[in-house]
Amino acid sequence: MPASNPSTIQTAAGSRPPFALASKPNRPPRSRWRREFEAMRGVRRRLVFMVLPWLVLLLILFPLAWHELDAALEGPLLRDRDDTVQDTSDIIVRTLGSLRRDVAFLSELTARQPLIDVSANSSIAQLFTSFAASAPQYDQVRWIDETGMERLRVNQRVGPPVVVSAAQLQNKGSRPYFHEALRLPAGSVYFSELDLNVENGVIERPLEPTLRVASPLVVNGQRRGIVVINYRANRLLERLAGLSRQQRIGVYLLNAQGYWIQGPNKADDWAGQLGRTDRALSHSQPALWQAVQQEDHGELRDAGGAWAFKRITPGQDLTLAGVRGQVADGALGLRLLVRIDPEAALQRTWRWKAVLATIFAVAVLITLRLGWQTGRNLAARKAHEEELQAANSALRQANEQLQTVQTELARADRLSSLGLMVAGVAHELNTPLGTATLALSTVQQRLDVLALLLKQGLRKSDLEDYVASSHAALDVVLTSLRRSAGIVQRFKQVAVDRTTMEQRRFDLAEIVLDADPRLRKWDHGNPVQLKLDLAPGLQMESYPGPLEQVIANLLDNALAHAFVNRPGGQITVRALADGPDHVCIWFSDDGIGVPESSLARIFDPFYTTSRHSGGTGLGLHIVYQLVHDVLGGSIEAANLAEGGMVFTLRLPRKAPLKKASSALSSGLLPLGEPPRRA
């Protein structure tokens, strides 16, 4: 018990001893939290398992609640975005409708005027001038004849409208809007691409976004060219920018080639016409550009925000708006894009998210506080349990004494087993040695007879009879001595000194095949067939010699006992991995099996069911000793339901290091104690 916690030291009467109140003078007193934390040392793992599920639940619920809050707060933003798309589209459509009506009206009035005189004082010039004065948003009002030559042009930039002199008129026959508008029926309207105005091959400065609206000029069924209005789009673009600032939602325009007319970044505006081809939307946001190309309207969410887009089609949109007359979309190709900026969305939702984060933090603190209180209670309960355990110390001492008695009994049982082993060895050696002694006495008697016959007169037949009988007797002696030597050799195997074995790395399949030459080249004429199923590449770091001896003994045991009074059968050896650290070897046969009464003693020393045919009962005991004590594994024997039996060996891939037993050092034979099976 630590001396730093004197409050836990009690006398027999329950009061503190006087020295318990003293503390080390140089050691600062620990805080209450630290003392309580140290008191929880024994219950920390249990406390973690109690508190951790609640913390995990909070960690799961917080992202879900955050997501739901995002969806709830984003809903109004998405509705505002969709409303902005509709409002902006209506503004553009109304503007296009006004342009359509103006150009159609001007074309109709122009057809009623004499077209021969186009001087500044002519009626048609006065018509164009008054028309331009009534619509200051129109930069130019022109009549282009059927050859593409400007016949009349009124400019309106700064100040009142001015009729351009004939010397300044240009040929617009190469412009697409001229050819497209000239082919339209009378009363139709053509919209050009919205781009920067170009004069004499040079983009005007400052930049002048211009939309050209044209209508064919038909006089008495004869085409006399087109009437064109150049609309300055600055006013429309400024209105869209103002709407974007008012709604705090980005409103942008894109042309048919994928370049920004008015985009999120001012540097990207008119990039295609100004030669900055790398600023195309197909380069910066290919997914958005693909969606805009494929659909007339839709939505897309990417890293830049939540987009909504719509294609502006004057023909369809003006018809839906109630504007009569044929309208050709021409090259307008406008795409309206509206975006919810992530930073703007965050500014509108951060308060609610801060509230949610605060609630989550409070819930975590409450959970930790309750966990701390629970830990204190568990620590107090554990201290009480320790006091109860201290009260039971007498019972533990009695239990230890009982275990000591059991250990002595086990030792006595091992000594008894040693006596039985010595008796078994004496019994096994007595039979062959007695047979050898009897044969030698027979030879001695025959030798005495031969000596007597030599004195009386030895015949050839007597000598031949002596030689024959002596050969037979000596064969019996040699056989008995060999059997005795075999018994002694197996007995030595049981007591083999494991310190002479070397551990090395090897392939299991190769060691199994090396255990017996017959395993590599089986005699197919043998009525007993062999089946091998050895997994390749199973590396082990163990003792190959004992493992080979185990396989060889199991093979000899099966050939000697499994197929008695049977015409033949099959032996199967399988070796497979059993997880990353173990291997399993199954040695099975389909022979006669072992009686259940004998199965429990199959690994006992000197236990055999074929003693009359020379069995010693040491083969399987040696197998058990090697597997259990040397290889560090386990072996089990069982009968198969379909007949025969199987030995199952489970071995570690890295065998434990050998330890010299005390029995070896004392000269005793460590036979071990094989498991008993019911």
Describe this structure in words.
With 678 residues, the chain is an alpha+beta fold. It folds into three domains: 42-391, 2-Layer Sandwich (Beta-Lactamase), CATH 3.30.450; 414-492; 499-665, Heat Shock Protein 90 (2-Layer Sandwich), CATH 3.30.565. It has helices spanning 32-39, 44-111, 123-134, 176-182, 234-247, 281-284, 286-294, 314-320, 342-391, 393-456, 460-494, 508-514, 517-520, 544-561, 596-599, 619-630, 662-665; strands at 138-144, 150-155, 162-163, 189-191, 195-196, 198-199, 202-203, 209-219, 222-232, 250-254, 260-262, 297-302, 305-311, 327-328, 335-340, 504-507, 528-534, 539-542, 569-578, 582-589, 634-639, 645-652. Strands 1, 2, 3, 4, 5, 8, 9 and 14 form an eight-stranded mixed beta sheet that branches. Strands 11-10-15-13-12 form a five-stranded antiparallel beta sheet, sandwiched between helices. β21 and β22 (645-652) form a beta hairpin. α2 runs antiparallel to α5 (234-247), α2 runs antiparallel to α9 (342-391) and α10 runs antiparallel to α11 (460-494). It is elongated, with a radius of gyration of 55 Å. Keywords: Cell membrane, Coiled coil, Membrane, Phosphoprotein, Transmembrane, Transmembrane helix. Residues 1-30 are annotated as: Disordered. It is a multi-pass membrane protein.
In short:
Residues 1-13 have a biased composition (Polar residues). The chain has 678 residues and is of the alpha+beta class.
